[in-house]
Design brief:
Layout: E1 2-5, H1 13-20, H2 27-48, E2 61-66, E3 71-76, H3 83-91, H4 98-104, E4 127-135, E5 143-148, E6 153-159, E7 165-172, H5 182-192, E8 200-209, E9 212-221, H6 238-248, E10 258-264, E11 270-276, E12 291-294, E13 297-300, E14 315-319, H7 329-334, H8 336-359, H9 361-381, H10 383-389, E15 394-396, E16 402-404, H11 405-412, E17 423-428, H12 435-443, E18 448-450, H13 456-466, E19 470-474, H14 480-483, H15 496-507, E20 517-524, E21 533-536, H16 539-548, H17 555-558, E22 562-569, H18 573-580, E23 583-593, E24 596-606, H19 611-624, H20 630-643
Parallel strand pairs: 2-8, 12-14, 17-18, 17-19, 20-22
Antiparallel strand pairs: 1-6, 2-3, 3-7, 4-5, 4-7, 5-6, 8-9, 10-11, 11-14, 12-13, 15-16, 21-22, 23-24
Helix pairs in contact: 8-9, 8-10, 9-10, 19-20
The chain binds adenosine-5'-diphosphate.
Length: 644
């Protein structure tokens, strides 16, 4: 038997391990099993090149718990280690970079365990003593027993071990007794080891029989050793992809819409499958996350810094040995490989979407409502994605027809270009509320888009910025004649004073102004068949308000009151009749002219005895844009009956 000190130059590595990795201590299991799997894979490689002769026999990795002895054991039948190798790889841990780690740990509290090859030592996070029993595959190698009680001292001696491979025995600390529970270990194995390339066995398989769980005489295999992403797309059917989706997310009932199989080997290695889920509501969005693997070992599902944010709405797996693991998040973002990976995934996802749209426009359109949020989010946050996405981002009109912006613009170019050469696209976010406005637009032969998505306003603004001579206007933001001005608008023949008289008469009867609501009365010779009085809301102000709800730093707009224009349509016969009823009088008015006070005679018009009718007209305008409610609505109904 030999004794020695573990070859790290700093005082003691164990306090470091325990202190800094405390929060993540469960990863010890992942680290030990990864080592076991590596050792097994190496053996298989050696066998395939003829360096190991004969049948490899049982190659399963096993995890066992002994509750009496309070041990957890990870056993493999891999290449094993000779005493020299234990000395080199375990005792001299400085070899795999621990020294460096120890020098740095003071500044970087975040764990760097896997990265610097401290994997095996993570066992000490939960153990008071760790033993290794190993038999190398090498001929004539003696089995070795190594033991260490969480201090820099270890013992090493020859032993007898009947089978090739390594057993790592953890004497679990009392404080971590949960790692002696089957359920805990099974949970961790399912989390970290579900797709490892070598079979991992834990206990016996159980089955429900007559309402009871019975143990079968068969080992319980935790993992799928050849998950879909490791196989060739040509060898997989749609069912295989769907099946794998449910393997990844057992709680997810919906089928994914479609998938993208990723496979790169230059300039970095990356494989994976991304799925487009059906996103029904905002709540769904982050329930299932993309999982990151490193050579089939689960690493994390917090991948915010590895892929652009909008891609985190997708589901699936990414497997790359080239993503540095267990390093700080800010470091990840600046890592060159990570940047390349992110760019590659963006391109791949965009290309796939473009391909799908080209291949079957109708089918793509059917899926559009489910993937719209994802694509719009991508366009708004990623310039590269925006450029590609213009070829498949769709707009939907009120007939339920879908088209890309270019296709749509071609469709309406004939009718919806105004006299200044601007293309004006009309939209509604609420077809019921805007019914009368929509009818007016349709009567003119215009098309109306349905833009009721959460990101639609932002996307419209973006499209306007990117394209010259393009404007989106909500159907209720002005008279249709003003929204798409064809020639100079029709004028009425009334004097400014007459119109002023009309405005005053209406103003006096407006519902009392609230803090958050303001009406501004204007006159306009809209059209004889339009409503006599109607409301419009300025597109710019409304949009700013809507966008400020999502964006910080725009609260100025958010705090502005909602202001509406109450438009008196002087082209309407009813209004013309009212103008005819105005009475005028001459009044003297003092005005300042070049600093001198002068008296001028003015004609002032007013409209008396028409209150009931004016109120009725205002209410009709409010009603037509969904703003007449409660008591005001009841009054309107009563007044209508009386008038009849
Ligand atoms: P890493 O795995 O990152 O190299 P570890 O501390 O986990 O760091 O392991 C150090 C080395 O010990 C491994 O590279 C391997 O050579 C050896 N080793 C660990 N576990 C096993 C095992 N189960 N079978 C064979 N060799 C092992």
């Amino acid at each position: 038997m030999s004794k020695g000190n573990i070859g790290v130059t700093s005082d003691n590595i164990f306090p470091v391990i325990k202190k800094f990795l405390y929060s993540d201590h469960e990863i010890f299991l992942r680290e030990l099993i990864s080592n076991a799997v590596d050792a097994t894979s190496k053996l298989k490689t050696l066998s395939s090149v003829g360096e190991v002769k004969g049948d490899l026999g049982d190659t399963r990795v096993r995890v066992t718990i002994d509750k009496e002895k309070k041990t957890l054991t990870v056993s493999d039948h891999g290449i094993g280690m000779t005493a020299e190798e234990v000395d080199k790889y375990i005792n001299q841990i400085a070899f795999s970079g621990a020294e460096e780690f120890l020098n740095q740990y003071k500044d970087k509290a975040e764990a760097i365990i896997g990265h610097f090859g401290l994997g095996f030592y993570s066992a000490f996070m939960v153990s008071k003593k760790v033993e290794i029993f190993s038999q190398s595959y090498k001929e004539d190698a003696k089995a070795v027993h190594w033991s260490c009680e969480g201090s820099p001292e270890y013992t090493m001696e020859d032993t007898i071990k009947s089978e090739r491979g390594t057993d790592i025995v953890l004497h679990i600390d009392d404080e971590f007794s949960q790692y002696l529970e089957d359920a805990t270990i099974e949970g961790l194995l399912k989390k970290y080891c579900k797709f490892l390339p070598v079979e991992i066995a834990f206990g016996k398989r159980k089955e429900w029989k007559d309402g009871k769980q019975v143990e079968l005489d068969e080992e319980n295999i935790i993992n799928d050793t050849t998950p879909a992403w490791t196989r060739k797309p040509a060898d997989l059917t749609e069912e295989d992809y769907d099946h794998f989706y449910h393997e990844l997310y057992p709680m997810q009932l919906d089928e994914p819409l479609f998938h993208i199989h990723l496979n790169v080997d230059y300039p970095f290695n990356l494989t994976g499958i991304l799925y487009f889920p059906k996103i029904k509501s905002n709540l769904d969005v982050h329930r299932n996350k993309i999982q990151l693997y490193c050579n089939q070992v689960y690493v994390t599902d917090e991948i915010e810094n590895i892929v652009p944010e909008y891609l985190t709405l997708l589901h699936g797996v990414i497997d790359s040995p080239d993503i540095p693991l267990n390093v700080s998040r800010s470091y990840l973002q600046s890592d060159n490989n990570v940047k390349k990976i992110s760019g590659y995934i963006t391109k791949k996802v965009a290309d796939k979407l473009a391909e799908l749209y080209k291949a079957d426009k109708d089918d793509f359109a059917k899926k559009w409502d489910d993937i719209k949020m994802f694509i719009q989010f991508g366009m708004l946050t990623d310039e590269k994605f925006y450029e590609k996405a213009t070829s498949f981002a769709l707009y939907k009109n009120l007939n339920g027809d879908y088209a890309t912006l270019d296709e749509y613009m071609d469709k309406v170019r004939e009718s919806q270009v105004d006299k200044d050469g601007n293309m004006v696209l009309l939209y509604t976010n609420d077809p019921d509320a805007h019914y009368t406005y929509i009818e007016r637009a349709k009567a003119k032969g215009y098309d109306v888009l349905l833009m009721d998505g959460e990101l639609d306003v932002h996307c419209m603004s973006q499209a306007e910025q990117k394209r010259e001579h393009l404007r989106f206007v909500r159907i209720d933001s002005d008279t249709i004649e003003n929204l798409i001005r064809k020639e100079d608008t029709a004028q009425d023949t009334y004097t400014d004073e007459q119109k002023e008289g009309l405005r005053k008469a209406f103003e006096a009867l407006l519902p009392s102004a609230e803090d958050k609501l303001r009406y501004n009365v204007t006159t306009e010779a809209a059209a004889a068949d339009a409503l006599p009085v109607f409301l419009t809301q300025n597109e710019f102000m409304r949009r700013m308000k809507e966008m400020s709800a999502h964006q910080q730093g725009m609260s100025f707009y958010g705090s502005m009151p909602d202001s509406y224009n109450l438009v008196i349509n002087t082209a309407h016969p009813l209004i013309q009749e009212l103008v005819g009823k105005e009475t005028s009088e001459q009044v003297n008015e003092e005005v300042e002219n070049d600093g001198k006070k002068e008296t001028v005679v003015k004609t002032v018009y007013s409209l008396a005895n028409e209150d009931e009718r004016l109120k009725q007209l205002i209410d009709i305008a409010l009603l037509a844009s969904g703003q007449l409610k409660g008591e005001a609505l009841a009054k309107f109904v009563n007044r209508s009956v009386e008038l009849l």
